[in-house]
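Check the record.
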Amino acid sequence: MSAVQRNNVHVQGAGTQAMVFAHGFGCDQAMWRHVAPAFESDFQTVLFDAVGAGRSDLSAYDAVKYADLAGYADDLVEIVQELGLTQIVFVGHSVSAMVGVLASLKAPELFSKLILVGPSPRYIDDGDYVGGFGAAQIEELLEFLADNPMGWSQAMAPAIMGNPDRPELGEELTDSFCRTDPVIAEDFARATFTSDNRADLDRVTIPTLILQCSDDIIAPLEVGQYVHAHIAGSQLVVLEATGHCPNLSAPAEVTAAIRAYV
């Protein structure tokens, strides 16, 4: 099966250049529904579901391949190549920001810009590095997910989303988490939250925009600043948006920031 079929790829828009949107953990391409259409008049917009998410082909899931983020980066490169695209603008949310970084290192000729929304190269604190979580906290989160996927989703999704005054946002993310196969969710969570891509940042050669929420428990401001400091020539924009999913909670602000950069 082709990567385009495997990843439930959808292409819209009329532009000659492509803008590829990638979703975060526990989500699918629907998380970009308030942002991607704004670019269809100027770009081909490409949306897809990571294998194991949304309407991807679950039979293609391979626990060995996807034990770390490199497997997802290989899929991204394959999708872009199958579509015959070059010089894409890549927009990645959360863990997919680092997937895009890895893909750009594998095949830099395919990328013209990286737009990283809430990126984190490492979620676990390490010496002077602030990732936002202690190692024990991450293990507790992963054990909670393994023991009680539904309870984990109901507890974590609203916290990740933030914006408690708009509970419908947390409910949408909870529903998205709950639709994910629990075994795949556990694998992807471990691949995400135990990843360490700090050394990859210095190797990035693609012009990069970092969109950092002003208050984000998953990727604190210190993390955005670290990514900015370690990707040469990158730009950091701190959004007024709060929470970890500004593509849902503040799509107009995200759209404006992307448009200003591209």
Notes: Residues 3-132+196-261 form a domain with the Rossmann fold fold (CATH 3.40.50.1820). The chain has a mean pLDDT of 95. Residues 247 and 254 are 6 Å apart (CA to CA). The chain has eleven helices and seven strands.
